[in-house]
Amino acid sequence: MKRLICLVLLALTATSCTTSRRISFLEMPPVPEAYEPVDIAALEEKYGNHDGVYLDYQVVMEHAGAKKEFPGSRGSYTKIVKRKYVVFDTEASWLTSKRLFRKPEVMYIRISRPDGSVTDYGLEDLKEIRSESGSKFWT
């Protein structure tokens, strides 16, 4: 009986695996994007004793590939992380800078200031740095 159950589960697993093209992409939104207004004074009053506050955090992970496109391959793995937060303490490096241990294929950072000005940063703005041990990272 156990063998039968194992065979059925194995068959279900094998037949449920599918291949597809990638469907999740990171695209930079247009600059005049309609942002939901943020009441920074109210957030600072409520969370002012913290370095900042996250307004939104999304992670999309995808493993995709088509057998025709990737014969003998396991496909591609994609992870997209989107963060939206308000910084109260500009000296808080965990919020104001990022350290990447692998250079991404696509990346952007958009900084929107209370005065309405917007600054965009992309891959070309990343700086490659070598640690004392010789390993590379990007910031």
Helix content: 10-25%
How big a fraction of the residues is strand? 25-35%
Which sequence of SSEs, written as H and E, runs from N to C? Answer: HHEEHEEEE
Number of strands: 6
Number of helices: 3
Overall mean confidence score, pLDDT: 75
Q: Oligomerization state of this entry?
A: single chain
Summing up helix and strand content along with how strands pair, one would put the structural category as alpha+beta
Distance N terminus to C terminus? 57 Å
Low-confidence stretches: none
> What is the overall silhouette?
extended
Q: Radius of gyration, Cα only, in angstroms?
A: 22 Å
Largest sheet: 2 strands, antiparallel
Q: Order of strands across the widest beta sheet? A: 1-2
What does this structure look like?
It is built from three helices and six strands. It is α+β, with helices and mostly antiparallel strands and 139 residues long. The protein is extended and about 65 Å long. The N and C termini lie far apart (57 Å). The model has no long low-confidence stretch (mean pLDDT 75).
Question: How is the topology of this model organized?
Answer:
Layout: H1 2-16, H2 40-47, E1 52-64, E2 76-87, H3 93-96, E3 108-112, E4 118-122, E5 128-130, E6 136-138
Antiparallel strand pairs: 1-2, 3-4, 5-6
Features:
3 helices; single chain; 139 residues; alpha+beta; extended; 29% strand; two-stranded antiparallel ribbon
Brief description of this entry?
The chain is an alpha+beta fold and 139 residues long. The protein is built from three helices and six strands.
